[in-house]
Amino acid sequence: MIIIFIIWTLLVANNSQFINDFDDLGISLIYQNHSNSLLLFFRSLTQVGGTIMTIIITLIFLAILSVKKYYYAAAFLLTNKLSMVIVNTLIKHLIQRPRPDQHHFMLESTYSYPSGHASSAFSLYIPLLVIGIFIVKKIGTKIIISTLAVLMAIIIGYSRIYLGVHYPSDIIGAYLLAAFILITTIYLFRMKNIFVLDLKGIQQQSNHQQNS
User: What does the domain layout of the chain look like in residue ranges?
Assistant: First the structure.
């Protein structure tokens, strides 16, 4: 994953023809049909993926997990989120890619690559999906949580292109980076289990609470 992200980032930094063609195609497909209702919807939704809002939501879930005594899950969520914010900010200032030159339907002042909203959404909702898989027991509830988490991550990324504030390659880069950080965090929390997604600390707490 990290190799793919590095290659993608180098292509973006060097303004490669492949990235230009990819962005032109993505923008032509998504940056259109700007009705007032859709603009209102995507402006509202994109706020849920912002760094500040996702930090607030993370703190809320940290409090809930701590009250429920899922300390391992809370530590996992916090570690992943903080890592994402720090690394994404560093890469933004390293690459210094300007925003797209089309009309912006939202005010943005930072650099474009990688998308902070897309990476923030991914680093919040996908880890919650992972935690939910191990804490929630009902299959139906797991499916609902998984579906909502994936949709939030995807739609928030889509909204950034629709609103004209990001290139499609910014979104892909953000997803690749967030996926790498998530996988790395999972490895750190896997408790010597060969199955990388088996977060035994979370699973053991869940089983302990059920038996108590």
Answer: 2-8+47-211
